[in-house]
Fold this protein.
Amino acid sequence: MKRFLLVAVVLVAACIGGVVGSIYTARFIDYSSASYNSIEERQNLVLTNYKTDTSYNVPRDLDFLATAKSVTPGVVHIRTSYGPGDFSFNPLEFRHDWSARSSGSGVIVSDDGYVVTNYHVIEDATNIEVVMNNNQRFYAKIVGTDPSTDLALLKIKARQLPFVKYGNSDAVQLGEWVLAIGNPFDLNSTVTAGIISAKARNIGILRDRNNLQVEAFLQTDAAVNPGNSGGALVNLKGELIGVNSAIATSNGGYQGYSFAIPVSLVKKVMDDLLEFGQVQRGLLGVQITDVNAELAEDLQLATNQGVLVSRVNDKSAAQEAGMKAGDVIVAIDQHGVNTVSELQEWVARNRPGKELNVTFMRSAEQKNVKVRLRNNDGLEGVSRKEIKYELNGVTVEDVNYKTLAELNLEGGVKVTKVEEGKWKKSGMPVNFVIGFVDKLPVNNVEDFNRILEFKKGGILLEGFHPSGEKGTYGVEW
């Protein structure tokens, strides 16, 4: 019996060992070929019976896909050149040896080629190149700049462009999702997401010789880095609510917060630059400071919120309306203002001559007055830049349509007089029609003025002689 049990145990152990050995051996058999030819087909076959993970469905209010897709084509890469370091007057050897280059971002705001960016992106630039999302390239002319808001308007010669529609920055709420789109570190079409962290933020980075800088930034935690400047801050509808301008940093890179100029201010500045070539700033004519609890207690103010008027300028709009030092402004056109930045933004949206309703506290009494804004010269009208027909040695005039058609030009200026100096030295003759300055098309004398206003160093002028022969001249501007 014992012998039988021993044999049975040995047989069972052998069977188990055989099975285990077969399994172990099977695991390490090296198959020379798979039974299928496509790994993707194999994956799909194995996953056929897997249940769909419905957790991947993104809530409508958090779907960034459509927004990013619609806005990205309207945000451009701006490349600027500074110089030149070398210049040749020989038209056949004319060259710009640019001494420095930088880049930033811009937002197309019209289908016919107007682009908004930061002033600091194109400041002192001699040449500006706009690169589209699809790698199309254009030379851009500066229509106008406003250092006090850090904004600039550019124009490229193009049609039917994708553009970013204006939104309403006043309606933006704290905690609302936003996307920042730009070209940080020359990485084109970068999209980051964040929320609105604060509104009407003043961080003290802008400076203006007349102390007219306006800082009322939208603050967000969307990642923004060098190269994002001038790019778009949009809501999830794909509407422009701000132009990215600055970051809070101690090392030059993103550290949690970035700042954008609200589109409410952008719209007004762009329209001014488009129509007048310069910003039309309406001013109250007061010196102001934030009211806080300590100041309210020291001055025994009736409110601990608002903007204290510390001085009213002579012959200013505020003085004309009867405002005095010690008044605390609490609203502009029924919109509450608790800080200097809020007040500056609401006033800066308006041109000289616009009448605003100003609400303020005088002692414990609330007063309302109508104030008609004035410009920095104390005038209520808007001002236009003078069109100069004589520019440092050359006199020009607009070209009639017949001549433009004969030369196959859309615009240009005709040289009517050349005086001794750099223009004469260039060899440019009378009756020459200038069609391009540094590859930028010239529309008329006013446009010629605007182009030359932002040029430094050598410039290349191209056009036609009366005979129709092409000509190229270099002038040290």
